[in-house]
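[User]
Um, tokens okay?
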Amino acid sequence: MLLEVKNLRTEFSTKKGSVKAVNDITFELNKGEILAIVGESGSGKSVTSLSIMGLVRSPGKIVEGKIVFKGEDLIKKSKSELQKIRGNQLSMIFQEPMTSLNPVKKIKTQLLESIRIHMNFSKDDSIKRAIEILNLVGIPSPEKRMNDYPHQMSGGMRQRVMIAMALSCHPEILIADEPTTALDVTIQAQILDLLHDLQKKLGMAVLLITHDLGVVAETADRVIVMYCGKIVEQACVKDLFQKPKHPYTIGLFESIPKINEDRDRLYMIKGMVPDPTRMPKGCSFSDRCEHCMEKCKISMPALINIENQRVRCFLYGDDVEEEK
């Protein structure tokens, strides 16, 4: 096991009260695997990744839990200790490259900064490494493109640069937060193929944050489904796609358009995600669930093992999660 997230709770203070963006989640990431975290906007996916990277900013904070990387709890690390790990052994691709890259600095400057900080290379060796990694991610004429500014590149090229920056120091874990957001379909496929090829070639583990089940089917080994800050289902890709168990997961699959179906309207999960400052007492999906029972409105079901999957639903058992 390379990374273990245990009972992680990340909260944000607001005028209306505390928001539990990540609410007591536990999972593992093994060496060389691709683990996807899926869910709609506001489910806690990105906050989970930022918590692991130690990048949660005020008014947010990690209030409980452990993030154990290679036997050491990252939450207990100082800022300087985290900086040595972040961008080196643990790296991240952010959602929108145009806002993640510095618009007034050349690609060369931004790439060399990370390499020289973490790898102790000379200037010449750093330039050589930068050209090598740009070539690896499919940037044509890397020596020339290193002198470009971000605005001189297409969205797909900027995303490749972001991947190059993330991989420049040979990380053991790469966190990819919606890596194909705002890219057209053709470029999305290219970026996903690139990530998959690089993961196989370099042997790193990947934590893939996405809302796109098509991306999950194409790339992931295991999947975590999140809703309102909690894990509601966890399984390998094949099991989840063949027999989803949680009503929310089933609803996500029903929402995918199918070529062989003739529908006037696409399926839509009824209702809205609850206000994070006024969450239901019981299951957070109870107001939208077609199978809701009285106990669902009162108690939160525990995450239990069913066959090879884990699911949080009273349809599969009466175990109740302990209140904290």
User: Anything to note?
Assistant: The CA atoms of residues 4 and 68 lie 5 Å apart. Residues 185-202 form the longest helix (18 residues). The two ends are 27 Å apart (CA to CA). The chain has eleven helices and twelve strands.
